[in-house]
Amino acid sequence: MTGAASARTRVPQSQRSVSVYDGSAERMADLYELTSFDQVHVDILDLLPEPGTAVLDIGAGSGRDAAALADRGYLVTAVEPSAGLRREAAVRHPTASVQWIDDALPKLSRLPGRAFAFILVSAVWMHLAPRDRTPAIRRLTQLLDPGRHLAISIRIGPADPARSIRQVDIQALEADARAAGLKPVRSLESGDALGRATVRWRTLVFRAPGQA
User: Fold this and answer.
1) What is the pTM of this model?
2) What is the pLDDT of residue 25?
3) pLDDT value of residue 149
C-alpha cells in the first residue's frame, strides 16, 4: 500500500477511541455506575446553578451524571459520541429527562443553538488530541451563559494509546481558558474514585465573564 493510500484509510484517533468504548460499552458503564455523581463531583456541587436552568454534560458515558442532574431539576443536554454507551444509558436511566446528542469536541456542531448555565466536561480532555484542545475551550466558552461555570475533570496518570488517552498539560489548558475570556475559579486534585493507584484527577472550574 502506498503512503497516500495508507493516509486515506487511516482512522482518526478520536474515532478509534469511540470504537473502543463501543466495543466495551457494558463493561465501561458498569465501572462508571460503581460511583455516584455526588461522590465523583463533590468539589463542584456548590457551583451548580438554580434548578430549571439548562446544563450540558459532555462525554456523558453511562448517563450517571446526566440522570443525577435531571433528578435535581435541570434541563439536561448530554453529549456522547459512543453509540454503545448511549444505549447503556437508555437502559440504566430510562426515566431521566435528558436530551441525548451524538456529538463530540472540539466542534460540537450538532448542539442546539442555546447557551448553558453550567457545563460539565468529565473525563474527556485526555481523549482530545493536543491540536483540538484550544478550539475545544473556545467552543465551550461560546456555549456558556455569562457569569456561569465550566467544570473540567482531568485524568492524571499514564497514557493509554489503546483508548487514545493522552497526557494533559494543565498550564496550557488554563492559558487557553484565559485567552478565551474565562476566569479560573477553582483547581482541586483528588484520588481516583475507583481506587486505581496510578490515577488521580484534577478538577478545574472556570467562570464566563459577565453577570449570571
Assistant:
1) 0.86
2) 66
3) 98
Distance from C-alpha of 167 to C-alpha of 127, rounded to nearest angstrom: 9
Euclidean distance between the first and final Cα of the chain, in Å? 56
Q: Which residues contact 129 (CB under 8 A, 6 or more apart)?
A: 13, 14, 166
Sorted by sequence, the CB contacts under 8 Å of residue 118 that are 6+ apart come out as 47, 48, 49, 53, 55, 56, 74, 148, 149, 150, 151
> Cα separation of 118 and 106, whole Å?
18
Range of the domain at 67: 3-207
Nearest CA to 49 out of 141, 147, 125, 130 is that of: 147
Task: Give the CATH number of the domain where residue 132 resides.
Answer: 3.40.50.150
Q: State how many domains the chain has.
A: 1
Task: Tell me, yes or no, whether 212 lies in a domain.
Answer: no
What does the radius of gyration of the chain's CA atoms come to, in whole angstroms?
Answer: 17
| Residue 2 pLDDT | 34
Burial (0-12, 13-18, 19+ Cβ within 10 Å), 7 = exposed
In a domain, 110, yes or no: yes
Q: What secondary structure does DSSP assign to 6-54, as a single string?
A: HHHHPPPHHHHHHHHHHHTHHHHHHHHTTS-HHHHTGGGGGG---TTSE
In Å, how far are 115, 133, 206 from 177, measured between CA atoms? Answer: 17, 10, 8
CA dihedral for 30, 11, 56, 146, sign (positive or negative): positive
Distance from chain centroid for Cα 3? 35
Regions of the chain short of the pLDDT cut 50: 1-13
Beta bridge partners of 204: 152, 187
